[in-house]
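Researcher: I'm preparing a figure for a lab meeting and need a structural model of a single chain. I don't have an experimental structure, so a prediction will have to do for now. The sequence is pasted below. Please return the structure as tokens so I can convert it later.
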Amino acid sequence: MTTADTGAGAIATTSTPPAVATTPIQGRVKQRMTSRTASAVAVIIAILWTLPTFGMVLSSFRPENEIKTTGWWTFFTNPNLTLQNYDEVLFSSGTSGRLAAFFLNSLIIVIPATIIPIALCALAAYAFTAMNWRGRDWVFIGVFALQIVPLQMALIPLLRLFTMGFNLGFMQVKLPISGTFWAVWIAHTIFALPLGIFLLHNFMGEVPKTLLEAAAIDGAGHARIFRSIVLPLLLPALAAYGIFQFLWVWNDLLVGLTFASPESQPLTVRLGELAGSRGSEWQRLTAGAFVSIVVPLGVFFSLQRYFVRGLLAGSVKG
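Model: Understood. Here is the structure written out token by token.
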């Protein structure tokens, strides 16, 4: 702290903020993680991690005879590319083709199966955080506990419900959604709610209560508070959860195989059949695999800055 006479008898006091103290262990860890050796190890791990994917993508553009006789690394000495593999996989009418139709099915499944859980989870998280009602804490504990329940336990009961309906005692209610996109959307929504509510609840817990109370004093209802105050602050968490749910639904095989009909099955089901019936047709498998990862990669890289921010919401206080 320093003091200075301003000439009129007044004393101006200036102070510098104290430096943030770091423990010796934290200093050593930071030094090791930022060293050249650590950077070199990280680069090597990144190369080894992406090398198989790079080889798969390169193989998908190579002719069939070269894929089956030589390794993908021989491309650099004898470069030869073709689009025939993608033409056969996407548009061929045989058992090894028609992936374009299943690609469209995946898009039809993944968009509602991502938007619906986001909307429901955001509303439920607001109800658990900003509204006081009897049994709220116990219900939240139940929702949190549902995360440890394997989805395989609910597949058969849900399939029976979608197929046979349910009995109210005085009447039998049938649900005409078995084998339709609705069955897949509802199943993915049910399985996504526990984790989504938990993540958004943690993020919403960081919103100052005084901000919500001030809005309520000004006459704003819960709908106005959620729409005008909470929702804009919740966008990073919504984007992070949206990425997680999108990747989960796009890569899902079990739900699509159980609830979808042959006309509404996603791309993953078709790829599984392709791998089972054409296990030696590497050119078709590599092309189909690359088609299946294009959309998830685009979504992740376009919204990756929100991913870590949303997942770490609520982990640090202060």
